[in-house]
Amino acid sequence: MTKAQHDLMFAGYTNYFLWLEQANFAGALRRKALGGCRVRFLIGDPDSPVTAAREAEEGVPLTLSTRIAVTLNELSKLSDVSGIEGRFETGHVNLSVFRFDDDMIVTPILARQVGHDSPMMHLRRRQADGMFDRFSAHVEELWRRGTDIRESSAQA
């Protein structure tokens, strides 16, 4: 993340662990955005049937909707920063994609497993139309389908 200059995409269904595991994560995001880097969060809709079904499958006390609430709370603290966006989309409950310019971490979420128990792949963009671009296109499609978290919050 520290090397990225143009594009940060956090397309994990909850992304809550970022706030817990990265020292001063909010400060890093603020600096990136103020430096011209596009920062986007694609998260699951905590009120969707997809989220409820996945919560039942995981069967853990720290539910998806609770983990999403952590991310929403932290993002609300950055609402004054231009360049940090968030959207809800439920089409990626079994896949996390974190993009940092031409580097990407992809985690396919396995059945009955939470994200930290699933395998992780580190991809680098080396050619057009390779695996990196395919995952990027997938996430961009989900982003287009998504609903701005501020709009959803305003309707609640």
Assembly status: single chain
What structural class do you assign from the helix and strand content?
Answer: alpha/beta
Mean pLDDT, to the nearest integer, reads: 91
User: What gap, in angstroms, lies between the N and C termini?
Assistant: 33 Å
Helix content: 25-40%
Based on Cα principal axes, name the global outline.
globular
Strand content: 15-25%
Give the beta-strand count.
Answer: 7
Radius of gyration: 15 Å
Order of helices and strands: EHHEHHEEEEHEH
Low-confidence stretches: none
Q: Your description of this structure?
A:
There is one protein chain. With 156 residues, this protein is an alpha/beta fold. Helix content is 39%, strand content 22%. The protein contains six helices and seven strands, in the order E-H-H-E-H-H-E-E-E-E-H-E-H. It has helices at residues 16-21, 25-34, 49-58, 64-76, 131-145, 149-155, and strands at residues 7-11, 38-43, 84-88, 95-100, 103-108, 121-124, 147-148. It has a seven-stranded mixed sheet, with helices on both faces. Strand 4 (95-100) and strand 5 form a beta hairpin. The longest helix is centred in the last third of the chain and has 15 residues, at 131-145.
